Amino acid sequence: MDGALWMYFLLALSTAPPLVPNAALIATAGMLAQAGELDLWLVLAVVAGSALAGDALVYGVGKLAGPRVRDWLQRRPTRKAALDWMADRITRHGVPFVVGMRFLPSGRLIGGLTAAVVEYPLRRFLLGAGIAEAFWASYSVALGYWGGAALDGAWSGVLLGTLLSLLVAGVAQLISSRTPAPEPPERAS
């Protein structure tokens, strides 16, 4: 059980901060849950809960740095346009927008910081982030769980989880690179 405790700790430690690549570790935890080495429900709770805690921390940093960040973003027309675009979308679409941001490259970081900077309510942000993290944790752990069951082996499950993670990251990067940036507002002459 000591090894299992370390695995839960490692999952929490690697999932809380955004931009830490841990998809292979999460898939491995799913595979270990399928093999009976870890508790599936505890793996899901640790992954989703620590990701939500990380989102709350990002929001808090955005709240503390909000005025300085807003001033910095408004110095250039392109940055101001991006902030205005995000503020408009989060105000107009609310919780569904927060959920959707989780699944964009760097969306967890950008979404949390922007929500705080534009003063989106914390409770609504955490609701959206909680829904997103529950969904994300479920499919991330399921990849390893079902991969381990289908391939009947630890190393096969790790390999499958790693390859699928790389594939998802590659597709997300391709989509984001082809998405046009918002146009800066025209200046009044």
UniProtKB/TrEMBL annotation:
Q: Which InterPro entries match?
A: DedA-like, VTT_dom
Q: Which UniProt keywords apply?
A: Cell membrane, Membrane, Transmembrane, Transmembrane helix
Report the Pfam families cross-referenced here: VTT_dom (PF09335)
Specify the superkingdom. Answer: Bacteria
- Keyword Acetylation included in the entry's annotation: no
Full protein name: DedA family protein
Question: According to its UniProt record, where is this protein located?
Answer: Cell membrane
Give the residue spans that cross the bilayer.
6-33, 40-62, 125-147, 153-175
Question: In terms of one coarse class, where is the protein primarily found?
Answer: membrane
- What protein family is recorded? Belongs to the DedA family.
Keyword Membrane: yes or no? yes
Please report the record's description of how this protein sits within the membrane: Multi-pass membrane protein
* Coiled coil region boundaries: none
Q: Which organism is it from?
A: Streptomyces mimosae
* The VTT domain, residue ranges: 20-145
Q: Name one GO cellular component term.
A: plasma membrane
